[in-house]
Amino acid sequence: MAVKGKGTPVPWDEISDSSIFPVSDVHANIESLENQPSKKGYKMFVLAARITAPKELKGQIYYDRYCVGNEDDPEAMDPVSWTGPRAVAARRWKKLLGKAGVALKGTAEDACERAVGREVGLHITQRQAKGGPREGELENEADFFEAGAREPRILGFVGAKSAVAAPPKKRPAPVVVEEEEDDEEEEAEAPPPKKVKKSPPPSDVPEDDDEEEDENEDEDDDDLPPATSTRRRK
User: Fold this and answer.
1) Per-residue pLDDT averaged across 53-65, rounded?
2) Is residue 202 part of a domain?
3) Does residue 70 sit within a domain?
């Protein structure tokens, strides 16, 4: 009972606004796996698994749903509802049972009863909800593993306040980019090579012919020794 005039302090700023589980590997005990029809009346199994480790999440209950019925077969009596391309929930439900060590035989209801009290590992992740009133909001999704196969631990949050600090992203060193830009600038600003002055042409050579010959010489300079003259005086 609280003492009058005194109360319980609350760390308001440290309480997360998110009500979903962090990304984590947990061990959990299956408390129930019941047949509960969906809102549309389709056959659906609802999981309630109480987390036993890690200690930060111990005692929390993880819920999941596996809707195996559909509009064409609400009671999932057709084998195609369990094996067809739309049977994603049926495959996840079977994996849950297998990783919990449940014998995969008999009716669906019998298998669910055998799962109660079993320990199973949950790899809890986060994703954005698609469709419905919560579209775009973060929600949990779980994959399954044998409880002893992984160490239970919190990996952190995605899009929420992180329980484990994420490593900083590596960025390319700007020095490399700057050096490349400098090299390009140096190449662009480099002065053109100086041309070797040629001796003046003889007075009896027409000016137009001389200009054309100079151009040809400029093109062929690389093929000739530097000290060799290519002209003869008349």
Assistant:
1) 97
2) no
3) yes
